[in-house]
Amino acid sequence: MDSAEYERKTAARFASFDQDGNGYIDREDFSAAAAALLAEFGTTARCDKGQALYMGAEAFWQGMAGIADVDGDQRVSREEFVTGAVKRLRDNPRRFAEIARPFLHAAFAVAAGDDGTRVTREAAGRVLRVLGAAEDRAQEAAAALDADGDGLISEEEILTAFAAYYTTPGPDTPGTPDA
């Protein structure tokens, strides 16, 4: 992959975290993502699932800040993201997955509804859309996550795809093959 392609993909990944578009990733971006997911699935912030999602968002933020906020200003610039989060974690995608696990576990519980064991492709697409993916790309990625074609996606499949998306040069969308 050439440098321009890598920069484009990194910019897209950064933008998916920068929920408010202010040029930085900060605690509020993670809280906004949690609030948007709860609203999408009609889940209240005060219920167990809502509280778990907010706690997961805070844990994810703390993990991200711990590896990428070099200057300690409680926000991650695009440059810090590229040098910290992407380059450091590219060699160890499981480390990134572990940082994201509390948030993804709670988001999975919200999207899985009462069943709690698997997320439908439709629900996974909704999560991806709420987190910033275009509708068509979100549905495409959700379909790719459903490797066995049964319409359901496991938490481990989501975690693995999420880590690969943010820590490797490809794919362009979580769950999709390299472009």
From TrEMBL:
Matches recorded under InterPro entries: EF-hand-dom_pair (IPR011992), EF_Hand_1_Ca_BS (IPR018247), EF_hand_dom (IPR002048)
Which Pfam families has this protein been placed in? EF-hand_5, EF-hand_7
Q: Which Gene3D superfamilies does the protein's record reference?
A: EF-hand (1.10.238.10)
Every copy of the EF-hand domain together lies at: 5-40, 133-168
| SUPFAM superfamilies for this protein | EF-hand (SSF47473)
Name recorded for this polypeptide: EF-hand domain-containing protein
What organism is this sequence from? Streptomyces albidochromogenes
Lineage of producing organism = Bacteria, Bacillati, Actinomycetota, Actinomycetes, Kitasatosporales
